[in-house]
Design a protein that fits this description.
Layout: E1 2-6, H1 19-30, E2 35-42, E3 54-55, H2 62-70, E4 78-84, E5 98-99, E6 103-105, E7 108-112, H3 115-134, E8 139-144, H4 149-154, H5 169-172, H6 174-187, E9 192-198, H7 209-219, E10 226-230, H8 252-259, E11 266-269, H9 275-283, E12 289-292, H10 294-298, H11 302-307, H12 326-340, H13 350-372
Parallel strand pairs: 1-2, 1-12, 2-3, 2-4, 4-8, 5-7, 8-9, 9-10, 10-11, 11-12
Antiparallel strand pairs: 6-7
Helix pairs in contact: 1-2, 1-12, 3-6, 12-13
The structure holds flavin mononucleotide.
């Protein structure tokens, strides 16, 4: 049982960990998670998902990163940062978003990364992975899902390139494969490297299941240790897994198809709510590892609970007609409460959760810019 990647927004607004964040990861480790993945740890401060993200790079505080990395092994658990780059979905107020191709769709406006910028990306990920290893993390997860940069390259909706990175799925996979190769050569054979990838974008014109299977078969030759299967994107108006209300687990049928094209161990993340579902996924050989996000926000001790004879499943709140992004905002704010140990008093409406989430991000724009000297033109 793995605590799946969640962008916890508990960084200090300048890309560095906080005491609250260290405490949150300590709680998950003490609660029995085999591994906790820190969501959206940025490889390049110019393209963050949110201003509460951590950044691996020259501005980092290695002392604090070391303490965060140590929060797992103290309880026999692992902590891995998820290497992120938001690309076209980078947070507007502190970025100039850029993806595989220039786009202007609804609220989404981005530039195209130049050939040279794309060519630099494998080294950027490799530097971040080496940094993660140097400060004591047990592995990294390369984020190639949910519509962020590497997922944008996989998706025909974002990727209209005509160079070696665009065209058929094999070419759209090229950057991800280059990144994996560079990361592996930077961290060596003994360090764990996972990839999170979409089963499909669940979006007309996006990555299809058939193409995702081709990508997964190519990953099989690419010296990675774990493939984490997810789906959906944060493309405007598209369904995101973290906001989904339907009964799960969501991606087991796809995982069974993936099993036929790869021998790499599979983690399946999305929609697990009960111990029965988790057991069935493993016994049925759809998953080697069960990824849990929201369930671990409701009960940080869930792995221990599920391993105890009495069991017990978390009680999921019922949200009627939630606004887009509301459920994700509610769970993000509950992470803040968990980190502070105040979760018993946590009961905001979705509107209040969204307002608190947006207010905090707005307050951090200035500190991010001061820390990184970033502005909308920082790519120039
Ligand atoms: C608050 C929150 C933040 C999330 N941030 C990330 C992230 O940074 N990276 C990622 O890969 N997935 C992220 N997710 C998605 C989860 O990893 C997971 O794929 C999704 O929530 C479905 O799993 P669940 O049903 O167990 O919650 C996030 C989910 C939530 C609820």
């Amino acid at each position: 049982m793995v605590k799946a990647a969640m962008s916890d927004s508990l960084g200090d607004g300048a890309g560095r960990p906080t005491e609250a964040q260290i405490e949150l990861y300590r709680r998950w480790a003490a609660g029995g998670a085999a591994l906790s993945i820190i969501g959206e740890v940025q490889v390049d401060h110019r393209f963050p998902e949110k201003p509460g993200n951590l950044v691996l790079g020259p501005h980092a505080d290695d002392g604090l990163l070391r303490r965060l990395a140590e929060a797992g092994p103290a309880h026999g658990s692992q902590i891995w940062p998820q290497l992120g780059h938001a690309g076209a979905l980078a947070h507007g107020p502190i970025s100039r978003p850029a993806g595989p191709s220039a786009l202007a769709v609804d609220d989404l406006r981005c530039d195209a990364l130049s050939r040279a910028e794309v060519g630099d990306l494998p080294a950027t990920y490799a530097r971040a992975a080496a940094h993660a290893r140097a400060v004591g993390f047990g592995g990294v997860e390369i984020h190639a899902g949910h519509g962020f940069l590497l997922s944008q390259f996989l998706s025909p909706l974002f990727n209209h390139r005509t160079d070696r990175y665009g065209g058929p799925i094999e070419a759209r996979c090229q950057l991800l494969l280059d990144v994996i190769r560079a990361v592996r050569s930077a961290v060596g054979a003994e360090f764990a490297v996972a990839v999170k990838i979409n089963s499909s974008d669940q979006l007309q014109g996006g990555l299809s299941e058939d193409d995702a299977l081709v990508a997964i078969s190519l990953l099989g030759d690419a010296s990675i240790d774990l493939i984490d299967i997810s789906g959906g994107t944060y493309f405007p108006g598209a369904p995101a897994s973290s906001d989904r209300r339907s009964t799960g687990p969501y991606f087991l049928d796809f995982a069974k198809r993936a099993r036929a094209v790869t021998t790499t161990p599979l983690m399946v993340t999305g929609g697990f709510k009960t111990r029965r579902e988790a057991i069935d996924a493993v016994v049925g050989r759809a998953a080697d590892v069960v990824g849990l996000a929201r369930a671990m926000v409701l009960d940080p001790d869930l792995p221990s609970t599920w391993l105890s004879p009495g069991g017990g499943d978390p009680r999921f709140p019922t949200f009627r007609s939630p606004p887009a992004g509301g459920i994700t905002a509610w769970f993000t704010m509950r992470l803040t409460a968990l980190a502070a140990g105040t979760e018993d008093d946590f009961d905001p409406t979705l509107d209040d959760a969204i307002a608190a989430y947006e207010r905090r991000d707005a307050e951090r724009v200035g500190s991010w810019q001061r820390a990184f000297d970033a502005g909308p033109d920082s790519r120039d």
